[in-house]
Design a protein that fits this description.
Number of strands: 10
Number of helices: 7
Structural class: alpha/beta
Strand order of the largest sheet: 6-7-8-3-9-10
Largest sheet: 6 strands, mixed
CATH class: Alpha Beta
Distance between the termini: 59 Å
Low-confidence stretches: none
Radius of gyration: 19 Å
CATH superfamily: P-loop containing nucleotide triphosphate hydrolases
Mean pLDDT: 90
CATH topology: Rossmann fold
Helix content: 25-40%
Number of domains: 1
């Protein structure tokens, strides 16, 4: 589904963000991307979403070479991908409904179909009753769920999430990750950048580790061993 071959990204002002990166994410696979701040996680997601271009190497999404994609087809490529951000990026003066509808409005979808899809997406994240609320009246967890609904409303093949639980407490983080797991079960491919190593281990999915722009580990972590029950006191 997503294939990177010897991908590097160099910025003139700060050097290499990614170095000779190669891996493949299969259709319907869910994987985590982790590493220290500045390791290249956000840069990698931007390259897949065609928000930026690599300096070297090739990226394929669904068999399509992004380097050969003409400019006029970039919007269609981005509609195949749902993006979730740490800071939500919601329009403060627009309702929850309007925020989620934005990708469909931009794509020129008929109003009736927009209504059906938006309400289905809000129902998936448990926010259908808040469709007329403004983002500033919502909790951080609710705002993040609005961002997820907006990412999935176009029924994308891939979801890319950049530190989606970075501002949330552990309980809300687990709730958001359970939502991602649900989309994974529906056959969506997910690549999630996160620092939350405890949640990564608990979920048991493939984990890609970046260090200074290089892929240094690619494995499925072992879940924590259950603790033995204490011996009864005689």
């Amino acid at each position: 589904m997503i294939e990177l071959a010897h991908v590097s990204k160099r910025y003139p002002e700060r050097g290499d963000a990614l170095r000779d990166l190669s891996f493949r994410l299969e259709a319907g696979e869910m994987a985590f991307l982790t590493g220290h701040s500045g390791a290249g996680k956000s840069t990698l997601l931007k390259l897949i979403g065609l928000l930026e271009r690599p300096s070297h190497g090739s990226i394929r999404v669904g068999g399509e070479d992004l380097a050969r994609l003409p400019r006029r087809r970039i919007p269609a490529h981005r509609r195949r991908i749902g993006m979730v951000f740490q800071d939500h990026r919601l329009l403060a003066g627009r309702s929850v409904f309007d925020n989620v509808a934005l990708p469909l409005v931009t794509a020129g979808m008929p109003r009736d179909e927009i209504g059906r899809r938006v309400r289905a997406a809000l129902d998936q994240v448990g926010l259908l009753k808040l469709e007329r609320a403004l983002p500033l009246t919502l909790s951080s967890g609710e705002q993040q769920r609005v961002g997820i609904a907006r990412a999935v409303v176009g029924r994308p093949e891939v979801i890319l999430a950049d530190e989606p639980t970075g501002n949330l407490d552990p309980d809300l983080s687990r709730e958001i990750f359970r939502l991602f797991e649900r989309f994974h079960q529906l056959g969506v491919s997910l690549l999630i950048a996160t620092h939350d190593l405890a949640l990564i281990r608990a979920m048991g999915h493939r984990t890609l580790v970046l260090k200074q722009g290089r892929l240094v580990a690619d494995a499925i972590p072992r879940p924590p061993a259950p603790q033995a029950a204490p011996e009864p006191v005689s």
